[in-house]
Amino acid sequence: MSGARISALATLRSQIERIETAEVVHHHDRVALGHGEVDHALKGGLARAAIHEVFCEGRQGAAATGFVTGLAGRVTVRRPLLWVRQDFSELETGALSMSGLAELGLDPRRVVTVRAADVESALRSSADALACDALGAVVLELWGETRQFDLVASRKLTLAAQSSGVTGLLLRMAAQPLPSTAETRWMLRAAHSPPGSVWSAWGAPRFDVELLRNRHGPCGRWIMEWKCDECQFSEPSAYPQPVAAAPAHRPDPAVLQRRVG
Predict the structure, then answer these.
(1) Which of 25, 184, 230, 246 is 20 to 30 A from 215, comparing alpha carbons?
(2) DSSP for residue 199
(3) Strands 184-190 and 51-56: what pairing?
(4) How far from chain centre, in Å, is Cα 132?
(5) Hey, which residues does 6 pair with through a beta bridge?
(6) In sequence order, what DSSP letters do the residues of 208-232 get, joined into one string?
(7) What is the pLDDT of residues 204-220, one digit of tens each?
(8) What's the domain count of the chain?
(9) 244, part of any domain
(10) Which residues lie below 8 Å from residue 99, measured CB to CB, with a gap of 6+?
(11) Model pTM greater than 0.90?
């Protein structure tokens, strides 16, 4: 066997050992999301020092962005959040709204945005940021199918996250899931609002969340509601169904029954 192959094999073994060792170290470092069934499936909550992928279908970019914002709010605590966006993503979906992030409970003063000219720049910026233990989380937003983000690139991000303890959130729009080293993989859709009057239409954001991959537990699908004031997810609130009023020209059935009896 040539010296180059021996060196490459040794490097690969070293990387595998680092991944396995880091998984043991960070196994119990999880943050509860607030939704009981989801936290149970995640063995206590979302794992820090790992990569988590969030995908969305069609025109569900706003829902996916809101969900990622919620995840970031849970894992960052009081540390800064770095949000790396591909230029093309901003052309398709518009710029991030700082006031919108604030309404969701995220402090805009702790959010740093980076615009990357292409996928390679976005990946490099994210890998460098994930290696900085001063951050709480790094969001990498990529648009469309990208051949540059392969299993090797995913492994680099995972190694950087495990080494620093920083959580990576990968937001993929208009893309199909591919093999990766992500801890979890989610598919996001906007959930229907509960029934109610027009005046009560503006309520807590609701997400139709499907956990497609979970390395340490089961998968599933849930409705998750985001509580902006508490900055956490929860089970959907129970809303009573409206009851139609009895017609004025008809007697009350209960009163009529008492009279007949």
Answers:
(1) 230
(2) G
(3) parallel
(4) 21
(5) none
(6) EEEEEEETTS--EEEEEEEETTTTE
(7) 899 999 999 999 999 99
(8) 1
(9) no
(10) 108
(11) no
